[in-house]
Amino acid sequence: MIDKIVLSMAALRVLSGSIELLAAFLMFRFNNVEKALLVNSSLALVGPIIFITITTLGLIGIADKVSWSRLLWIGLGLACLFFGILKK
After folding, report:
1. Contacting residues for 54 by C-beta, under 8 A, at least 6 apart
2. How far apart are CA 56 and CA 70, in angstroms?
3. Which of 4, 50, 64, 65 has its CA at 20 to 30 Å from residue 27's CA atom?
4. How many whole angstroms separate alpha carbon 64 and alpha carbon 35?
5. What is the pLDDT of residue 86?
6. For residues 22 and 19, what is the distance between their CA atoms, to the nearest angstrom?
7. Distances from the Cα of 46 to the Cαs of 40, 64, 73, in angstroms?
8. Where are the domains of the chain?
9. What is the pLDDT along the chain (88 residues), one digit of tens a residue?
10. Angle, CA of 45, 26 and 54, to the nearest 5°
């Protein structure tokens, strides 16, 4: 039996990959640099949302198996990751 959280995480990854493929097909279809750039920039919104959602689901799945101090370390690691990505 597949864990519900693992199934949800995998389904979101499949959805994310499908959106990426759809974007590639749209770029081919439009055959225009400006429109391709617009499609690509819209993916910049999808990626982080999927990442945050999957990470949250994973943390919810392990929350009862991991101590609070380890969850704090995981949270700090994610904060460092976001700080490094978003800091300009």
Report:
1. 9, 12, 13
2. 15
3. 50
4. 46
5. 75
6. 5
7. 10, 29, 26
8. 4-86
9. 989 999 999 999 999 999 999 999 999 999 999 999 999 998 988 888 898 899 889 988 888 888 889 888 988 988 898 788 777 6
10. 35
- Supply 63's token pair: 């929350």
* Token pair in block for residue 41: 């920039």
> pLDDT value at position 6?
95
- pLDDT for 64 equals 84
3-state SS, the chain, equals: CCCHHHHHHHHHHHHHHHHHHHHHHHHHHHCCHHHHHHHHHHHHHHHHHHHHHHHHHHHHHHCCCCCHHHHHHHHHHHHHHHHHHHCC
Q: Exposed e or buried b for every residue in 55-65, given b needs 16+ CB within 10 A?
A: eebeeebeeee
